[in-house]
Amino acid sequence: MREIFVFGSNLAGRHGKGAALYARQHHGAVYGQGEGLQGDSYAIPTKDMRLQTLPLPAIRAHVAAFVEFAQRNPKVRFRLSAIGCGLAGYLPEDIAPMFREAPANVSLPDEFTIALKEATSHAD
Q1: Which of 57, 39, 58, 51 has its CA nearest to residue 12?
Q2: For residue 81, what are the contacts with CB-CB under 8 A and spacing of at least 6?
Q3: Is the Cα dihedral 36, 42, 45, 48 positive or negative?
Q4: Stretch 23-50: mean pLDDT, rounded?
Q5: For residue 84, what are the CA distances in angstroms to 2, 76, 106?
Q6: Domain span holding position 85
Q7: Which of 13, 33, 35, 124 is least enclosed, having the fewest CB within 10 Å?
Q8: pLDDT of residue 1
Q9: Please, which pLDDT band fits residue 119 given cuts at 50, 70 and 90?
Q10: What CATH number is given to the structural domain containing 98?
Q11: Is-contact 29 38, C-beta < 8 A?
């Protein structure tokens, strides 16, 4: 099964730090491409063209596009990094709920799994 590394990016596609740099060095992320499938990676923007952190509703829209892509590609395994929780500065509790409806072929990072479990236990 093909595995895709999913990372947080900026709309300028400057994959120079963090998971984006890792994706460029090891998974075929394309410098200058800020969103979508590239090599064995998929970029979800968490920062804008000027490298400023995007607001949560904007990130949510990019996540929704990714979730739809993952649903259309059920034979691909997507290994999600903790997007938005490094250089963008959000907490797992901010981002993890955006992936609540992700299909089974998306592997969430531990930080997101824990945040979702905690959110569910607080809702009970």
Answers
A1: 51
A2: 5, 6, 7, 8, 19, 109
A3: negative
A4: 97
A5: 24, 23, 17
A6: 2-123
A7: 124
A8: 84
A9: confident
A10: 3.40.220.10
A11: yes
Give the CA radius of gyration of the chain: 14
Read off the pLDDT of residues 55-108 as tens digits, 9 standing for 90 and up.
Answer: 999 999 999 999 999 999 999 999 999 999 999 999 999 999 999 999 999 999
Determine the average pLDDT of the residues in 41-47. Answer: 98
- Closest residue by Cα to residue 48 from 39, 59, 60, 40: 59
DSSP, collapsed to helix, strand or coil, labels residue 62 as helix
Please tell me the total count of domains within the chain. 1
- Is the CB of residue 67 less than 8 Å from the CB of residue 80? no
- Can you give the pLDDT at residue 124? 54
Write down the pTM of the prediction: 0.95
For residues 94 and 96, what is the distance between their CA atoms, to the nearest angstrom? 6
Q: For residue 96, which phi and psi values (nearest 5 degrees)?
A: -50, -40
